[in-house]
């Protein structure tokens, strides 16, 4: 996804697939991709990488381009600002069993929030914006990946730094 567009993934219904309803009773997820904000993103001060058709998940950059994870009303910022025209691997994890949200940039932990509520809202998962296209991410996204469980920190570091082949086992 590039420029100012966004992608609504029809059929990936967040309430039933990533929240704590339907086929994912834990409400857990991992959302990861490579991020390269452009000058417009930095000037705007915010832009969302992940969202939903209606409210719910809105993860991306906010508050002077800090990494930001939110579930409509339960938000927190990380300690890493993104830099214009610089690629970084950005991962958002929500563990619905432990009720913890975590954020990683380039494999390193940049923010944790306990007592976070599960994603609410409705509709499809959106890549490149939030709330049916609001506050679009300005720049480029690559290697977008979605899991319906919380990836461990070691795995997140490995996919960000390419130190392990995808088919290698984890102890």
Condensed summary:
This protein has 171 residues and is mainly beta. The protein has helices at 14-17, 39-44, 153-161; strands spanning 2-3, 7-13, 29-37, 47-54, 58-62, 66-70, 75-81, 88-95, 100-105, 108-114, 122-127, 139-147.
What are the main properties of this structure?
3 helices; six-stranded antiparallel beta sheet
**How many DSSP helices?**
3
Q: What integer value in Å does the Rg equal?
A: 15 Å
- Beta content: over 45%
Shape: globular
Characterise the protein shown here.
It is a single chain. The strands form two sheets. Strands 1-12-3-8-9-10 form a six-stranded antiparallel β-sheet. It has a six-stranded antiparallel β-sheet with strand order 2-11-4-5-6-7. It has helices at 14-17, 39-44, 153-161; strands spanning 2-3, 7-13, 29-37, 47-54, 58-62, 66-70, 75-81, 88-95, 100-105, 108-114, 122-127, 139-147. The protein has three helices and twelve strands; from the N terminus they run E-E-H-E-H-E-E-E-E-E-E-E-E-E-H. The radius of gyration is 15 Å and the shape is globular. 11% of the residues lie in helices and 46% in strands. The protein is mainly beta.
């Amino acid at each position: 996804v590039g420029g100012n567009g966004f992608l609504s993934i029809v059929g990936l219904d967040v309430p039933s697939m990533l929240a704590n309803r339907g086929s994912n009773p834990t409400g857990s997820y991992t959302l990861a991709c490579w991020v390269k904000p452009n000058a417009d993103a930095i000037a705007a001060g915010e832009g969302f990488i992940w969202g939903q058709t209606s409210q719910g998940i809105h993860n991306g950059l906010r508050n002077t381009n800090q990494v930001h994870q939110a579930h409509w009303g339960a938000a927190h910022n990380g300690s890493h600002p993104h830099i214009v025209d610089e690629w970084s691997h950005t991962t958002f994890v929500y563990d619905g069993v432990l009720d913890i949200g975590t954020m990683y940039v380039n494999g390193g932990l940049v923010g944790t929030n306990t007592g976070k509520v599960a994603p609410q809202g409705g509709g499809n998962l959106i890549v490149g914006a939030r709330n049916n296209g609001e506050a679009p991410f300005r720049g480029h996204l690559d290697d977008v990946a979605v899991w319906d469980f919380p990836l461990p920190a070691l795995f997140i570091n490995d996919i960000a730094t390419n130190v392990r082949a995808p088919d290698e086992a984890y102890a």
